[in-house]
Design a protein that fits this description.
By secondary structure, the protein is of the alpha+beta class. About 40% of the residues lie in helices and about 15% in strands. The protein is built from four helices and five strands. The strands form two sheets. It has a three-stranded antiparallel β-sheet, covered by helices on one side. The protein has a two-stranded antiparallel ribbon with strand order 2-3. Strand 2 (about 10-15) and strand 3 form a beta hairpin. The relative contact order is 0.14.
Length: about 120
């Protein structure tokens, strides 16, 4: 898979087996074994279905939609291990479900919208 940094800054991707890669603003081919770490470091894959502005910013609306769908799936599963003791979706599980690190801004927006929808 090919990855690049979401913010244009170089990201160091390292695995416990010794594999290391530096991903910057240009697309870089990484082995599939490094995909999860690349997402966690703040990279995006070429295959991601996202809209970009000319500055390279990810369209937060598409991210929020993906996060809302993942939270709905988590809620439908009725698996208590997917949620924190406070009743919020576990962010580590959510990140894995959507394939990128969910920012606080996107999480708060998605969670707030789901809460508002539940009240109506």
């Amino acid at each position: 898979m090919r990855f690049k940094s979401r913010d244009g800054e170089e990201k160091r991707i390292a695995l416990l087996n010794g594999q290391i890669a530096i991903v910057g603003k240009e697309w870089k081919e990484l082995p599939d074994s490094m995909a999860a770490e690349a997402y966690a470091a703040g990279c995006i894959s070429e295959g991601d279905i996202r809209d970009f502005s000319e500055t390279g910013d990810v369209n937060l609306l598409s991210e929020k939609t993906k996060v809302k769908e993942a939270i709905k799936e988590m809620m439908a599963s009725s698996d208590p291990t997917m949620f924190t003791k406070a009743g919020l979706p576990d962010r580590r599980i959510l990140n894995n479900k959507v394939g990128f690190v969910v920012s606080t801004e996107v999480f708060d927006g998605a969670w707030g919208e789901l809460q508002a929808e539940a009240k109506t």
